[in-house]
Amino acid sequence: MKITIALLLSLFVISFEFIVIVVKNRKKSSEENPLYLILKTSLMCLIFLAGFLFYYFFQDHTDLSPLFLIMALFISIGGDFFLAAGKKFFLFGLIFFLIAHIFYILSFYFLYPTYILIPGIIIFILIFLYYFQILFPHLKKYSVPVGLYVLIIGTMVYFSIIQYFTGKHPFIKSLLILVGGLLFFISDGFLSYDKFVKKLKYRNFLVLGTYFTAQLFFALSCLY
After folding, report:
1. CA 150 to CA 220: how far, in whole Å?
2. In terms of pLDDT, which residue wins out, 118 or 96?
3. Which DSSP category does 28 fall into?
4. How many structural domains are present in the chain?
5. What range defines the domain where residue 156 resides?
6. Is residue 182 over pLDDT 90?
């Protein structure tokens, strides 16, 4: 039954995601495209609702890990709203996602709080190399908030990796969190490169496709 639920939800989200990308491609400016704001925020609301229902019916409510994950999904709604609202709200969106990542870190930390793993450390270092070598020269007034965000998302990716290698939880749950964490960083990498360094030709597909898939995988992890 869980596999059927996961497949149906994935099919729905991918279809909805395609519509969001098509609407976004119609106009370059978010300020001139309110339909994009509504659809993008609505899709995140649906992912959060699915995750909440999975948490309510399938998780131990005394376990803090899935609770923090659901809180992160909820806060991400605010991040999506502000990022879709236009350039002048970029910093607000960044703050919301920074807070969401803190809750993701707490969620993955409680999955296995004391494990240290070399692959996670390597990814963490690569993330900071990306920041200092590629992004930092172009950030200007955003150097501090983006630097802080990179630190937080790097930590989130680190914990998403180490929880996978513990073998303490169902394989599918650990895999969903691992892939979700990596996709989230890839999405933010595309977004930051497009915003601060150079415009990407397939920006909307690259950013939104990886982002919503990451959030979907996080929500689906509450099934297991």
Report:
1. 25
2. 96
3. S
4. 1
5. 2-223
6. yes
